[in-house]
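Working notes for the structural subgroup meeting. M.R. asked for a predicted model of this chain before we commit to crystallization trials. I am recording the input and output together here so anyone reviewing the notebook later can reproduce the run.

Input as submitted:
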Amino acid sequence: MWLVEFYAPWCGHCKKLEPIYRQVADTLKSHPVKVAKIDCTRFSSIASVFDVSGFPTIKFINGETVYTHRGERSEEDIVEFVKKASGPPVRSMASIGKFNEGKLEHKDGVFFLYLGDGNLEIDLYKKYSSVAEKMAAQAYFYAGSEKTIPKDVTPTKFPTVLVIKDRSWFEYSASDASLASLEQWINGERFTSFPKASGGNINDMAETGKSLVMIVVNPEDREKADLTHR
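Returned structure, recorded in token form:
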């Protein structure tokens, strides 16, 4: 497994990313994912193979599986990208204890949960697994059973798919339950209701198919307000 930055020496954004990428490499020293960089002015054919069209581009590569990082170019976001991409597309969540651990781990984010009887041949699970493989680097996907959820989580049917976010849960309820319908629903639910938009994720948000209402603020105003109230 590799995390690779495709860069060009003349690229200003690449130069800005350089110290952050070094931090990422330090953070992942004990991780099985290896960190590398490729100068696309010297190895343009490799860049073409991986469909690199701009710099810097960060990709996770595991054999024939390739995911492109589309979030913020911060150490935290890049490491989180690696954690998602390097794990199994669908993780096991077998108990209420694991469910609560998941809620704590993703308290400021989102995760999806398939609930069934463990039969991996069920049509809904096959579709869920297919979407998870496609979107593994964009969201966390889990699978469990009725024993996974506490009493205050009450799905209307089994098997089913839930999204856990915003300190609540929501159920996939499309009548046709097609692969396209499930993928569209997951794509639209993979952000919290009030996420922080940035240059790194705004295009990703736009692709959810939902209308975006944005509030633009100056972080310096918040800092000045904090100083005033001290």
